[in-house]
Specification:
Layout (H helix, E strand, L loop, with lengths): L1 H6 L28 H16 L4 H11 L3 H15 L4 H5 L8 H13 L2 H58 L7 H13 L1 H20 L1 H10 L6 H22 L4 H11 L3 H15 L4 H8 L4 H13 L2 H57 L1
């Protein structure tokens, strides 16, 4: 115990009996939770201070005094109190599973035993930045087409409720009996005008649902996982899954986490159920004595090229380096695929919207021409 205190540059000023594990604290369900970016910034700051030979408890004090975010400040203060009583950083952060996932906690626990906490925190921060940028690029690729669709819906109902009724009234007053496609437009307009209140509530609910989806990582992950059934998007999701799996595997392997534990943590990290089930199958086979690449090949989890690179690394005993190479390779391919998908999806949505609006305009103009013929 004395050696551990000297290693941490701590001077005991008070002694009290504590249990072997960190004390359990009540966390209010109304207490604010720090964002993903806040925790990443905390990790980077803590790694920088530890690299500068600042003691862990002192580093947390410095971060607490400098942070302006209430949710993050509360967690940092709680961590400092726990560590000041002689507990480890892993025990302190384990009380906040929403902010610190199991992969984070496990890597910190292993690093504290190995004595390379500063290096491990740097690796965690880099990986979190990488994953955050990856999710941002993927969701940004979907944001533009979704915005166009929402705008088209708004324009469509504006035309039906405000513009088309003006012409519809003129046609009704003249007793014109329209033929062709235009009666459908006027029928839709009458329905929309008659249910304006309901449509207003539906629009508000749709906007609220969009905001909820934008803020909920779980819902966004579920929606993104559904895209694998759309041709073209399945390739994007396969590449994204390869990046997440290989980068996390490399990070855990370099931190000294054994393979079964790493696979279990990766399984919990996977957001869509299908990927989690595949990793669970790989974990079961590895526990039964199979090689990792053999188990991955049987469940068709990784693309063939990535699987071959990982197999070579496993044979040479450098699986972590091979996993990093695979993650970097497919991250580059994913960037290109996202750019290509965005370049294709945007014009396609614009063409569909333009064709739809053109149909309405042509229908109205055709009805007006019929009215002019009657007047002549």
């Amino acid at each position: 115990m004395t050696t551990e205190l000297e290693r941490r540059s701590l001077l005991p000023i008070d002694i009290e009996e504590v249990n072997g594990s960190a004390p359990k604290r009540r966390v209010s369900i109304l207490a604010p939770t720090p964002s993903y970016e806040d925790v990443t910034a905390l990790t980077e700051d803590l790694a920088a201070l530890l690299t500068g030979s600042v003691a862990l408890d002192r580093a947390l004090q410095i971060i607490y005094q400098s942070t302006k975010r209430r949710a993050l400040a509360g967690i940092v203060y709680s961590m400092w109190k726990v560590i000041s009583k002689g507990h480890s950083l892993g025990e302190a952060i384990a009380a906040y599973p929403k902010a610190f996932p199991r992969t984070y906690v496990k890597m910190v626990e292993v690093a504290e035993v190995a004595g390379n906490l500063d290096v491990t925190l740097q690796v965690i921060a880099q990986n979190r930045r990488r994953q955050s940028e990856l999710r941002h690029r993927l969701t940004s690729a979907l944001a533009y087409p979704c915005f166009l669709i929402f705008a088209a819906i708004g324009v469509f109902f504006f035309v039906l409720i405000v513009v088309v009724p003006q012409f519809d009234q003129a046609l009704v007053e003249t007793g014109n009996s329209s033929l062709g496609s235009e009666p459908l437009v006027f029928t839709l307009s009458r329905i929309a005008v008659g249910h304006r209140t309901l449509l207003a509530y539906a629009g508000a609910a749709l906007i609220g649902a969009a905001v909820f989806v934008a803020r909920s990582d779980a819902v966004k992950a579920a929606l993104i996982s559904m895209l694998r059934y759309i041709p073209g998007f399945d390739t994007l999701l396969t590449q994204q899954r390869a990046v997440v799996f290989c980068s996390t595997l490399a990070m855990l392997s370099r931190s000294g986490v054994d393979l079964p534990t790493a696979l279990r943590l990766i399984r919990d990290l996977m957001r869509d159920k299908n990927s989690a089930n595949l990793v669970a199958g790989v974990l079961a086979e590895v526990r039964d004595g199979s090689r990792l690449t053999d188990a991955l090949a049987r469940v068709d989890f990784l693309p063939p090229y990535g699987l071959q690179i990982l197999r070579v690394g496993e044979t040479t005993g450098e699986a972590d380096k091979a996993a990093w190479r695979v993650a970097s390779y497919y991250e580059t391919k994913l960037d290109r695929s996202i750019a290509r998908a965005t370049a294709i999806a945007g014009p396609l949505v614009l063409l569909a919207i333009s064709a739809f609006i053109a149909w309405i305009i042509v229908s109205v103009i055709t009805a007006l021409l019929s009215l002019n013929e009657l007047l002549l």
